[in-house]
Amino acid sequence: MKTWITFWRRGRLLALTGLLGLTGLAWAHGGEDHGDTALAVNATGLPRVEAHTDLFELVGQLDGQGLSLLIDRYDSNAPVLGAKVAVESGGIEAAATFRPEYGDYAVTDERLLALLRQGQEHALVFTVTLGNDSDLLDGTLRRPQAAAPAEHATGLPWAQLLGGLVLLIALALVAYVYLQRRARARLLPGLGEPV
Fold it and tell me: Is 100 helix (H, G, I), strand (E, B) or coil?
């Protein structure tokens, strides 16, 4: 019975030592940052613009069909539907057409779209008029930067190597103590087992 109790105590100690040694494996690895700073700004990869004033806020995206704009009231996030919207960039001005089926505004003027599809950034001025409310919104259409390729380490990170080394030393120490006590119990019966 005493042998079983000794084995149980050593087994718990071995399990605890193993868990402590494995904590190094749970840390960020391979240069990855597991914080919230790695959130993607533009998951679609399409050029995007954001602008707001005290009256309106606007989000736009340039795709193969044109420039799509979503406009809300800034204070309440209520959608702005059926407003008169104009967009100007590089001396070219175009009207945006409200699309009730999507709840957005579409800019399809080919001269403006051809300009916006060139280069990385374009300053835009939006004129939004809804009833008695009218406002100018300034924004910059930006293409998202290509993500840098992730660097992969050729070997194990130092934290993992250190954790593995600590685990091996702890396991060797537990095995040594166990074998010493077992050998002592064979030589001197009754003295090798702990009380």
Answer: coil
Tell which wins on pLDDT, 157 or 58: 58
Tell me the three state secondary structure of residue 134.
strand
- What does the alpha-carbon distance between residue 165 and residue 171 come to, in Å, rounded to a whole number? 10
* Full-model pTM: 0.54
CA distance 165 to 84: 69
Annotated domain spans of the chain: 2-28+156-187, 43-142
User: 166: pLDDT confidence band, cut at 50, 70 and 90?
Assistant: confident
d(CA 67, CA 111): 12
What is the number of other CB atoms lying within 10 angstroms of the CB of residue 94?
A: 19
Are the beta carbons of 69 and 85 closer than 8 angstroms?
yes
